[in-house]
Amino acid sequence: DQQVKQNSPSLSVQEGRISILNCDYTNSMFDYFLWYKKYPAEGPTFLISISSIKDKNEDGRFTVFLNKSAKHLSLHIVPSQPGDSAVYFCAASANFNKFYFGSGTKLNVKP
Amino acid sequence: DAGVTQSPTHLIKTRGQQVTLRCSPKSGHDTVSWYQQALGQGPQFIFQYYEEEERQRGNFPDRFSGHQFPNYSSELNVNALLLGDSALYLCASSLGASGTYEQYFGPGTRLTVT
């Protein structure tokens, strides 16, 4: 049972443009959502999070949007930089219990 | 400040064997979670240790067991290895069970079962 889904395995954008990564979930009890970035041969690193009481959270070039009615969240990166090229995972939990991860989206930012 | 460390980096085992993976949490962290990441998939939660006890467990069989030591380091043991156990095993540490949203991951141990 995949409760968190990232339906786009890969995304390619031009440097300076916006990158939009999407994530869908099925469990309405999820109340905390995170995005992680993973470079090859490294563990995932925390990027940004959002609580279900918010619909938007911003941190520099990164913004996460949450649409609870659609059970959908997205990560916007503006402007995209070549160093942003990595695999991005979304994750969700209910009451900080175990986290469920999506399968990841590989972002390639072309110079 | 040392981050999360895991050993070994790579491991090759034969079906039916047993394996032990090790994790040292980030300095100051007391909670350790283990994840399995199969190729092309996201990390799947195995279990979490806090105060030397297993607090939460994912949907993994009893062949997967763990331990946390007084210094907060942790081991993941897998018995009777199957080919399907081949994966990247990630350890993540955090401060307190309620702080698991800010987990710091290690680089992982790549386990290959032949």
The gyration radius over C-alpha positions of chain A equals 13 Å
Q: What's the helix-strand series of chain A?
A: EEEEEEEEEEE
Average pLDDT level of chain A: 94
Helix content of chain A: under 10%
Instruction: Provide the succession of SSEs of chain B.
Output: EEEEEEEEEEE
Question: Number of helix segments of chain A?
Answer: 0
Helix content of chain B: under 10%
Instruction: Give the class of chain B from helix and strand content and strand pairing.
Output: mainly beta
Number of helices of chain B: 0
| Average pLDDT taken over every residue of chain B | 93
- Major β-sheet profile of chain B: 7 strands, mixed
Any idea what the shape of chain B is?
globular
Main sheet overview of chain A = 6 strands, mixed
Number-wise, the strands of chain A total 11
Report the uncertain regions of chain B: none
Q: First CA to last CA of chain A: what distance?
A: 38 Å
Overall structural class of chain A, as computed from helix and strand content, comes to: mainly beta
Q: Which shape of chain A, going by the Cα principal axes?
A: globular
* Record field, number of beta strands of chain B: 11
Largest interface: A-B, 25 and 25 residues
Percent of residues of chain A in beta strands?
Answer: over 45%
Structural commentary:
- The complex is a heterodimer of chains A (111) and B (114).
- Helix content of chain A is 0%, strand content 54%.
- By secondary structure, chain A is an all-beta fold.
- In chain A, a hairpin with a 6-residue loop joins strand 4 and strand 5 (45-51).
- Chain B has no helices and eleven strands.
- In chain B, strands 2, 4, 5, 6, 9, 10 and 11 form a seven-stranded mixed sheet that branches. Chain B has a four-stranded antiparallel sheet with strand order 1-3-8-7, with no helix packed on it.
- Chain B starts with a strand and ends with a strand.
- The relative contact order of chain B is 0.32.
- Chain A binds chain B through residues 4, 6, 9, 32, 34, 36, 41-46, 49, 89, 91, 93, 96-104, and chain B through 4, 35, 40-45, 48, 56, 58, 90, 92, 97-108.
